[in-house]
Amino acid sequence: EQRWRDGRASWQRPDRALFVPRLHTVARLADTRTAKAFVVQHHYSKSFPSARFRFGLYTETALVGVAVFGVGMHAHVLRPFPADAAVELARVVLLDAVAFNAESWFVARCFEELRHEGLAGVVSFSDPFPRTDADGREVFRGHIGTFYQALNGTYTGLTERRTIRLFRDGSVCSARALAKVRSGERGWRHVVEHLVAQGAPSPLTKDLRAWLPVALAATTRTERHTGNHRYLWALDRAARRLLPSGRPYPRFEGRAAS
Question: Residue 190, by phi and psi: left (phi above 0), alpha (psi -120 to 50) or beta?
Answer without folding.
Answer: alpha
